[in-house]
Amino acid sequence: MDYTHLMILIWSLWAASLLLTVMRGITRWHSQRQIFADDYFVFGGILSLTGLTAVITRLLPQFYLAGAYAAAVMQDPTTPMPLPPDVFIARTQTSLKLMFSQMLLFWTTLWAAKFSILFFFRRLLNGLPKYIKAWWGCFAVVLLLYLACMLSNFLTCKPLAKYWSSTGCSDPEDLVRADASIKFATSADVVADAIVMILPLNILRKLQINARQKFGLAMIFSLGIIIIAFALARLAQVTKATSNATKDPATVADAPVLLSMWSHIESSVSIIVATLPAFRYLLNVKIGRTQGRSNTRERSGGKTTSQVAGQSRTRRVLSGQWGGSLNTSMSQKGSVTENDWGSETELRPIQGIEKRVEYSSTSGRRTSTSEDLRSESRA
């Protein structure tokens, strides 16, 4: 891909990511009047992506120039440099330093998206101590994988100062190390995405909701598959370019260009994916409208108040209006009980309308003695 088309692609992806991030913030504030930790991670991710976009825009012209010059030299060794030697070398060193910072921004952007999805799920686990402990375990592993990816960036080229020398890490052993580094970091990336998905999908399997709601949640929690697909595509393209560079020195500048392009694509996709859960309420508003009457018929068809309330609460969780947790079972007294999630939790009051009916026995018959309708609302 030529430089102009690559710049159009990069800045278009950045604009799409920024637009969705802004829309996410507006949507979250409109629906809940507050910003949560998962929102802040997305905001941090878009800042990191902005820095990544600027860095790539700054460094790519020099690599395109170096690539064209290397190809020309292979054809004609007497080809003069396109710039004065000292200027050409200085620009190359600057671009290599930017390349180093690019990788730090890349991993930071990716992990900001992962942490956003993790903390989105964390808000649904209030009152479930068993799964909160599992969540903290997932968080610790994902954090360690982020630190490992950052560390691998410092170990790719030895000594580190060689990274931005006039020749860069272009020796055969350096290219082998670079190939191993990107394979390790991509593996860590994929494992982190898998960890982010496994816990919520395991809980979803036990959640007592209808098939449509379960499918919607499964789609939200499986979004990491998209990031994994782009990570594997990035790995395939970059390792291919690195392998070609060891065989043909004229293509040595292709690897940085492909690495920059695919790093930006994966980073942009990760931010876009991280924003999507905030828009889930748009679908569920429609679900609520189409299912409102059917829920009324279900009540008259023998469903208990707790079952109806549980479904209503699930819909509020999906729509972003529920401030509590995803507990799905209730006891009549609201005491500590074993719920469908497999952990004991003290159930919290339900938003909306609560109906309380008391009965007394007279001559073997039950008669209604009092009925109290109470409306509670909670932010």
TrEMBL record:
Region (Disordered): 292-379
Ranges of compositional bias, category Polar residues: 302-312, 324-342
Record field: transmembrane: 6-27, 39-60, 104-122, 134-155, 184-203, 215-237, 257-283
Ranges annotated as biased composition (Basic and acidic residues): 368-379
Membrane topology: Multi-pass membrane protein
Keywords, ordered alphabetically: Membrane, Transmembrane, Transmembrane helix
Pfam assignment, any one: Fung_rhodopsin
Family statement drawn from the similarity comment of this UniProt entry: Belongs to the SAT4 family.
Protein name: Rhodopsin domain-containing protein
Organism expressing this protein natively: Didymella exigua CBS 183.55
Biological classification of the source: Eukaryota, Fungi, Dikarya, Ascomycota, Pezizomycotina
